[in-house]
Design a protein that fits this description.
The strands form two sheets. Strands 1-2 form a two-stranded antiparallel sheet. It has a two-stranded antiparallel ribbon with strand order 3-4. The chain is mainly alpha-helical. It contains eleven helices and four strands. It is globular. The chain has helices spanning 2-31, 33-37, 45-77, 84-114, 125-152, 171-202, 209-245, 252-271, 276-280, 283-286, 291-296; strands at residues 153-158, 161-167, 307-311, 318-322.
């Protein structure tokens, strides 16, 4: 009973936090919807729109995951033996969608650079091909992962909750695959995003203060992307280690660690945007932002002249860093 009470508090708290994030992100989206409607979206601008939708999707799937876990706890209290296997697999599928939403945003982030004519020179044929292949693999894993899990593992209800009854593969294989997938995806998507920025920064040879400031801005974007990816990878690996190492009938600690990890991944996605405070706490800008300000903001990823719009802008998707000629003196 104590285990159920602890997990109940954790899942309920996580559900409320995720629900708040969904509401805040939707509110942010609605505030700028009018200005977005007035403007026809171009090719690159669609990426900012899709990135915002990916963020909302990650938070929504997180909320549904925590609701599913809370429902499982309710069934434990009712001593209900039905739906155990189904609920666990639904929970896994929703969790899978969270990570797919995270990877989708990271893919869109780097792709917004690769499709622009003004920044395409910063990429190579190898990285452009890898970008496309990564998307294909992402969709394949999104389908295969839940299918394999559902077909090879079966759960039953015990007095300690839903537990793995039989599995076609050792459970450690599943968690090892998760750790490897997480590491590879974050590493590849980070490299695809950082590579053109590093190439541009290396080409900025001028010693003028303006160019130096631009180089510093680019480095800040690179560091921000690296640190957020590092946090996600470390958190995911910790979950895998705890799941494998803590083998007990009462799985309070692994479940709490897993829930915290999901929330952390969702928060890191939101933190990708430089205006994350406005997104999470809409009241910050309500008093100071006029309707004309909101109308004038561009809320999509755009490229104009020689300006590279890299992810994390005030309007919601990207931080604006001026890109001058690679051969600037």
């Amino acid at each position: 009973m104590r285990r159920i009470a602890i997990l109940g508090v954790v899942t309920t708290t996580a559900t409320l936090i995720a629900a708040y994030l969904v509401g805040a992100l939707l509110f942010y989206e609605l505030r700028f919807k009018e200005s977005a409607i007035r403007r026809k979206r171009g090719g690159q601008e669609k990426y900012g729109h899709l990135m915002r939708k990916s963020t909302i999707a990650a938070a929504t799937f997180g909320m549904l995951t925590f609701l599913s876990q809370t429902f499982q706890i309710f069934l434990d209290l009712q001593n209900d033996v039905m739906f155990c296997d189904v609920l666990v697999k639904i929970d896994f599928t929703l969790t899978n969608f969270i990570f797919i939403s995270v990877y989708a945003l990271l893919w869109l982030r780097q792709r917004s650079i690769y499709v622009s004519a003004s920044t395409r020179h910063l990429t190579t044929s190898c990285t452009r091909s890898l970008s496309v292949v990564t998307l294909v693999v992402m969709f394949a894993i999104a389908i295969i992962n839940p299918a394999v899990f559902d077909a090879t593992q079966w759960f039953k209800r015990t007095r300690f909750g839903c537990k793995l009854e039989t599995s076609a593969f050792p459970d450690q294989y599943h968690w090892a695959a998760l750790a490897i997938t997480t590491l590879i995806f974050h590493a590849v998507l980070l490299a695809l995003f950082v590579h053109p920025l590093v190439r541009h920064r290396a080409g900025m040879k001028s010693r003028s203060k303006i160019v130096s400031k631009k180089a510093q801005d680019i480095m800040q974007v690179i560091k921000r992307a690296f640190y957020l990816a590092l946090v996600c990878v470390i958190s995911d690996v910790i979950v895998v280690v705890v799941k494998v190492a803590v083998v007990t009938e009462i799985d309070v600690i692994p479940q709490i660690v897993a829930d915290v990890n999901l929330l952390l991944n969702i928060c890191c996605v939101i933190a990708t945007f430089i205006d994350w405070r406005e997104r999470v706490f809409p009241c910050i800008e309500i008093g100071s932002t006029t309707s004309s300000d909101m109308t004038s903001r561009r809320d999509d990823v755009t490229y104009s002249g020689t300006k590279l719009m890299t992810v994390s802008a005030r309007e919601g998707q990207v931080e604006q860093t001026t890109v001058t000629s690679i051969h600037e003196n």
